[in-house]
């Protein structure tokens, strides 16, 4: 057997994540789970994984929904000195089989029984562990994640234990994050980087309780905020902002400290609706699976700009944002158009203010198109569409012309939409084709899908 490429030194798990007192509460599901209980459960899971064939330097594929079982098996995999391959539980069997054939873990952890209902944030899972191969992990990373796939096929991305520990410590230096003794009301999936590092790993390290709501509804999120007296930060994505902006609180919420969002750009109208309703800061995070958090504006003072996170350098080159990234994060052949010489090419359009260093993200680089020799920024068109009355979400792409896919609340007709756009956009900027849908397709992280083939399928 080849030499194990994964570092088998698992001390970082205890040194970074099992800090604090054994009696400290780290999770509320809604019953409290303290550090001692979590440590005991992780130890038992390590024994099960080892019995099934997981070895230091190997890999375990986790196909689990958000649950205590997911947290336990993730930490157990790392404490074994193995690599964790995170597979979103919403992937199809075909997608999972394809990933397993490519990544070849030693064991696969998947539900045997799941309870709690489709709208539960955390579910009750009984997991099973099955052997898959006897091969060591194919790369030296502690975690393997698949990109969201919002613009095309998912990329395989790896991060080392040092990367994860470095990002956890980066969070401790960001002004405005939840502090020890406070709570994070966790909404994004822990399979993806915001929920994984910004929620789970930072929370365990810093002594911040993770309190997912029982269900994915505005009322349940507010109930989770009100459940304890300690200050609470709601961590989510733009979809969750819209959910809360349309929810009327039943009473005062002095515990609500702020909401922090990552993922897509937040439409200005949605941000205003949230802050008008709750009167607390709406913080903004910009990050990527490849490097984690890149920049933040947790007080909403610079919207839409953000300040680079501690230790992160951002530069603009030819209208594209580049981010410092010491090693190639992609598993497989290196792509010099995405990473080279310590810089990750984000494929996001943006600017860096030379005086303040503030970064403004302007959307995908491929959103710049030419119509009759005139430049059009599809991000601008999309923002204009999204802010119209009756529109709940919008995606604007170039598909043999400017094409808008629009999710409405049912009150908007196509001719009305076209008329409203004619009042707001120059003729060469207006969508040539409009598609009104009851529901736009989204990725497993809640991002709007921008692949034209998927949008065409949804429209048909």
From TrEMBL:
Keyword match Transcription regulation? no
Alphabetically, the GO molecular function entries are: medium-chain fatty acid-CoA ligase activity
Q: Which residues form the AMP-dependent synthetase/ligase domain?
A: 38-303
Keyword Ribonucleoprotein annotated: no
Q: Which residues form the AMP-binding enzyme C-terminal domain?
A: 380-447
The superkingdom of the source organism is Bacteria
What name does UniProt use for this protein? Answer: AMP-binding protein
Q: Tell me the SUPFAM superfamilies matching this sequence.
A: Acetyl-CoA synthetase-like (SSF56801)
Question: Which UniProt key words apply to this protein?
Answer: Ligase
Q: What is the lineage of its organism?
A: Bacteria, Bacillati, Actinomycetota, Actinomycetes, Micromonosporales
List GO BP terms, alphabetically: fatty acid metabolic process
Q: Which InterPro entries match?
A: AMP-bd_C, AMP-bd_C_sf, AMP-dep_synth/lig_dom, ANL_N_sf
One Pfam family named in its UniProt record: AMP-binding
Q: Which family does it belong to?
A: Belongs to the ATP-dependent AMP-binding enzyme family.
């Amino acid at each position: 057997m080849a030499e194990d490429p994964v570092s088998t030194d698992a001390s970082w798990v205890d040194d970074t994540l099992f800090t604090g007192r054994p009696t400290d509460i780290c999770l509320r599901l809604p019953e409290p789970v303290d550090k001692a209980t979590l440590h005991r459960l992780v130890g038992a899971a390590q024994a099960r994984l080892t019995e099934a064939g997981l070895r230091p330097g190997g890999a375990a594929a986790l196909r689990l929904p958000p649950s205590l079982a997911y947290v336990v098996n993730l930490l157990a995999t790392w404490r074994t000195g193995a690599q964790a391959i995170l597979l979103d539980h919403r992937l199809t069997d075909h997608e999972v089989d394809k990933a397993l054939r490519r990544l070849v873990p030693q064991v696969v952890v998947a539900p045997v029984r799941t309870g709690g209902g489709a709208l539960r944030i955390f579910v009750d899972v009984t997991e099973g562990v099955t052997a898959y191969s006897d091969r060591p992990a194919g790369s030296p990373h502690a975690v393997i994640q698949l990109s969201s796939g919002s613009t095309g096929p998912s990329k395989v991305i790896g991060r080392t234990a040092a990367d994860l520990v470095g990002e956890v410590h980066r969070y401790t230096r960001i002004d405005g994050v939840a502090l020890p003794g406070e709570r994070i009301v966790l909404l994004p999936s822990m399979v993806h980087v915001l929920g994984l590092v910004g929620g789970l790993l930072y929370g365990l390290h810093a002594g911040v309780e993770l309190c997912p709501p029982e269900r994915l509804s505005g009322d349940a999120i507010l109930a989770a905020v009100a459940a304890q007296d300690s200050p609470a930060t709601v961590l989510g994505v733009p979809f969750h902002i819209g959910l809360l902006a349309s929810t009327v609180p039943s009473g005062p919420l002095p515990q609500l400290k702020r909401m922090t969002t990552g993922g897509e750009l937040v439409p200005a109208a949605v941000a205003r609706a949230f802050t008008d309703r709750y009167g607390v800061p709406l913080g903004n995070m910009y990050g990527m699976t490849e490097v984690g958090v890149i920049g933040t504006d947790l007080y909403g003072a610079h919207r839409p700009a953000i300040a680079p996170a501690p230790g992160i350098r951002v530069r603009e080159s030819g209208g594209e944002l580049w981010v410092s990234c010491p090693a190639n994060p992609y598993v497989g052949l290196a792509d010099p158009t995405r990473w080279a010489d310590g810089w990750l090419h984000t494929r996001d359009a943006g600017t860096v203010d030379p005086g303040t260093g503030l970064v403004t993200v302007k959307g995908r680089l491929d959103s710049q198109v030419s119509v009759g020799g005139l430049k059009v920024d599809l991000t601008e068109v999309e923002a204009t569409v999204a802010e119209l009355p009756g529109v709940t979400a919008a995606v604007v792409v170039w598909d043999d012309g400017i094409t808008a896919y629009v999710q409405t609340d049912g009150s908007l007709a196509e001719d009305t939409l076209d008329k409203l756009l004619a009042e707001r956009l120059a003729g060469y900027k207006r969508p040539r084709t409009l598609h009104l849908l009851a529901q736009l397709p989204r990725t497993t992280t809640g991002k709007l899908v921008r692949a034209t083939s998927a949008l065409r399928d949804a429209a048909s």
